[in-house]
Amino acid sequence: MVSTTYKQYYGRDVVEVLDKETSGNFGRALHYLILPPLVLDAELIYEASIGAGTNERCMIQVLVGRSNADMAQLKTMYYAKYHKTLESVARSEVSGYLEKLFVICIQGMRDEYGQQPFNVDADVHTLYKAGEGRMGTDESQFIHILTNRPDAHLKQVFQRYHHTYKKKFTKVIKKEFSGWIKTALCYLVTWIDNPAHCVAKNLHKAMEGAGTDDQQLTRLLVRNRTQPFMNAIKAAYQAKYKRSLRDRIKSETSGDYRRTLFSIIGEPERG
What we know:
single chain; mainly alpha; 18 helices; 74% helix; globular
């Protein structure tokens, strides 16, 4: 690992050196890149939860959609680094149904491989009766199904719901929920259905409108930079927005920061 080798040769912490020598968006990008993935995720949760206010979007993108094994590793890393449990942080930073969602995700007890005989039609019917088929919304039923079923099963549920009730499931979520729980459940549903499309959508949101959410842009690119997945993200972005991710980043960034992001997505500086 770069940080270990650097310390062996020079006796200094490479993260501290980078933080001292660089700043701004460029400095943040280098800082994120030098950290091991689990250390970065733990730090992102810590930064999202300290001080006044909470960065709910960051917490959603780090906590929602992880495998049970990944979550177990993150919990161990977070406690080792910050001496607090991840669950206690979630409970102290958010409330209501978002807290419930985070806690279930953190507990990491989802049936990932279909060990129980779940029924697609039964879940579709239950979700309809919990939302569009009643006055008000049974939020707990939505959260229970979306956090306790295998991804492959849920993809079938979303497809069957669309076929039966002529509505995409993300539109159902947007109609039945509001606030950050709506954002979190939309993220979860989109991630389950197509992870590359999910990241592409969030990259677009980070760059749309007046100003760019550079922290989110950098976070999304660094956390999802493995080459096969990044190629899928770029293809999804091009297909949905009729513009290359490289071109969009070029229009929103400059200098060393832009060059670093180009390197992350595997695109040339010129072109």
